[in-house]
Amino acid sequence: MGLTGTVLAIDAGNSKTDVALVGPDGTVLGAARGDGFRPPEAGVAAAVAGLVPIVAEASARAGLDGAVRAGHVQACLANADLPVEEAELTAQIERLGWAPSVTVANDTFALLRAGLPDGPEPAGVAVVCGAGINCSGVAPGGKVARFPAIGRISGDWGGGGCLAEEALWWAARADDGRGEPSELARALPAHFGLPGMPALIEALHLGRLPAARRHELAPVLFAVAEAGDPVARALVARQAEEIVAMARVALARLGLLEAEVPVVLGGGVLAARHPLLHERVLTRLAECAPKAVPVVVTARPVLGAALLGLDRLGAPAGAYGALRGAYA
Fold first, then answer.
1. For 13-29, how does the pLDDT look when each residue is reduced to its tens digit (9 = 90+)?
2. pLDDT band at residue 1, thresholds of 50, 70 and 90?
3. Contact assessment for residue 80 and residue 86, using Cβ atoms and an 8 Å cutoff
4. What is the spatial distance between Cα 144 and Cα 284, in angstroms, rounded to a whole number?
5. Fewer CB within 10 A of the terminal residue: the chain, N end or C end?
6. Helices marked H in the chain — which ranges?
């Protein structure tokens, strides 16, 4: 069924995928959620194939029969970190025939667009701190700033996965005497009902605790930090510095350090507004970019993907308010 002027918006992160069919007036016609999007593990073709049933579910919820033919596909995807990856993902999605045009961008651009005002030539920077960490920005005229954000080889530090690993490292050393004493050595194994770090190390090493459960340790780290543990507090402080460093560099690249523009903060770690982290980010950001306006976005990032799609199709002004209202 043809849907001229309709956006097929996809926001696919490492842990979950959201799809929405959005009409030209901003109405959400149908939406669906599925599993995470991981081309490095599954391969590009298989990862894109995994989007098909989620799109089909959104289509069914919109009351559509048969194949969807939207006006534009806007896909904001995790692991679309390099131009060559964006091109490969675009080609794979184009083969599915969902729309005459397809735009693929890194998923940070969905958060960025969700936090920017609607209108011509929006400008600002977004930092995502969820499972990982990344940053993107745009200046008037369309100039873009971004980072490869593919891990330590591209200079990255932070996000829930990194924080969990750091907490384990410091807890192990606190327990065996190689490092500073820390409440982490008790709190991390206690979270899993284990008596101590040796038991936790063994359970993780032998697979009795799935590796995927390590992400549960980031909130434990924040709780220990809030209680005053110096080791945990140092990790939270470093995370704040990394977030601000990304924002500062992106603003500088775009010539926006002295401009009153949004710095959009999102992802699970930032959206939780952990007091120690949140306040330090605001303080340090005010020091290096005093005119920047911090904005925490908690709406599903598929909102940003849909807004980008409306931009592409030249939607009327009222469509933006209707769409934002649906995700308020």
1. 888 999 999 999 999 99
2. very low
3. yes
4. 23
5. C
6. 39-42, 44-49, 52-61, 83-94, 108-115, 160-176, 184-191, 197-205, 217-226, 230-253, 268-271, 275-288, 302-313, 317-326
